[in-house]
Structures are given as structure tokens and as C-alpha cells.
Amino acid sequence: MTTFPCTTAPALFDTMGGPDHPTVREAKSLCLTCPAIFMCRQQGRDGREWGVWGGESQVERNQAIGQVEDDDRPECGTYPALMLHRALGEKCEICLEARRERERAYDAKRREGRKLVQPVKKRGGARVKSKCPSYGSYKRHIKLREDPGPCGCREAYRVARAAERAAKPKKERAHAECPSPAAYRRHRRQGESGIECGCLEANRKANSEQKRAKKEGSAA
């Protein structure tokens, strides 16, 4: 079974430095021992991958596949443009000055004790309270430990719960077959004797067996 060098030390290949970077040089030396170096290099170019692929650093790969088209390049002065210049081994004074300006603003906020990151605004507007009587008002009364009876919220809650239970599909209950003790109990609830189907006799046998088991357990 073939073992690739990048699987044994993946962190070594996850770097954005140029060909002269010590980590990149070490990763490239391992790539030279890999049988899939050319296929890996082509995959890195086609997928615009990150790090060292097929003995090729980030800078060398970007230079090999050509410069990025002008329409696709981010505007200079932004953080993505700065990262692209670094990947291509370029030096842009506009992007560097914009980064210095961001760092100065960051330091000024820190000295003044202001928040460095603006809090994210919550979605939606102000929460509207439910008016009495209603299902929502009943829950608010219970949370505030108030009596929901005088305003009619308790009755509104009962009506809403009854409507919810009525809307739910009822599951058909499986009835026990005759003769059995469970079927005998059903006959009793319905005012039937359960003699004809043998449920009465089955219930008597079950009770006698239960009593016999209790006696044997107490004797042991």
C-alpha cells in the first residue's frame, strides 16, 4: 500500500510561503519522493488549492497558472487584495498602507477602551406582547407568577389546548383478543360478562397462577 508524504505530516504542506520559506523547502523535498507528484501538481493548479501541491509552493503555482484576470481581482486597499498580492509574491503600497491604517484605527480603539468589534444587530423588531385573553398571555402570566383567571387567559388556554388535542390524529388502540385477561377487563368496562368467549375463565386462571407464584416466592 502506497503512503503519501502529505498524509503523514499534513500541517507541513499547509503553508502559503514562497519557495525560499524553510517549511516550504522541507515539504517540497518530501514531494520529490512521492510517485504522484505530477498528478498532485496538476490538481493543485486546476483547483487553485492552498499550500504545497506536487512540489510547488503557493507563489510558484500562481505564477504557473498565470496572473488573475483584471475583472476577478479584488480592489486594492482591501484585505482580499492584500492576500492575493502575498500569494503572487507582489508588493502593493496601496494595500500595505490600507493595512497600516486599519492597524492604527485598531490601536486607537484599544487605547480609548472602545469595542474592537461592533456587536451584531439582532434580527427583527421589538417583540409585541400578546393581549389578554390569549394563549400567549396565559404563558406570560405563569412566568410572572400572576393569576390568569380574572382576565380570561386560563379559559383561552384550555380552549386552545382542546383544539390542539382535537386536531391531532387519534391512534387506534389495539384490542386484546379473546380469551385473555386483558379482553376480560375490556368486557367489564363495556358491561359485558365475558363468559361466552371464555375471557372470564382465562381471567380466573391468570389470577390463580399469580397467587400460586406469590406463595412459592414467599415460601422460598
In percent terms, what proportion of residues is strand?
Answer: under 5%
Mean pLDDT score, rounded? Answer: 79
Q: What characterizes the major β-sheet? A: none
Low-confidence stretches: none
The coarse silhouette is elongated
Task: Report the total helices.
Answer: 11
Number of strands: 0
Q: Work out the radius of gyration.
A: 39 Å
Order of helices and strands: HHHHHHHHHHH
Structural class: mainly alpha
End-to-end Cα distance: 66 Å
Bin the helical content: 40-55%
Q: Any descriptors?
A:
elongated; 0% strand; 220 residues; mainly alpha; 11 helices
Task: Please explain how this structure is put together.
- The chain is an all-alpha fold.
- Helices cover 54% and strands 0% of the residues.
- It has eleven helices and no strands.
- It has helices at residues 5-8, 10-13, 22-31, 37-46, 58-64, 79-88, 93-112, 135-143, 153-167, 181-189, 199-219.
- Helix 8 (135-143) packs across helix 9 (153-167) and helix 10 packs across helix 11.
- It is elongated and about 100 Å long.
- The mean pLDDT is 79.
Q: Which helices and strands appear, and what pairs or packs with what?
A:
Layout: H1 5-8, H2 10-13, H3 22-31, H4 37-46, H5 58-64, H6 79-88, H7 93-112, H8 135-143, H9 153-167, H10 181-189, H11 199-219
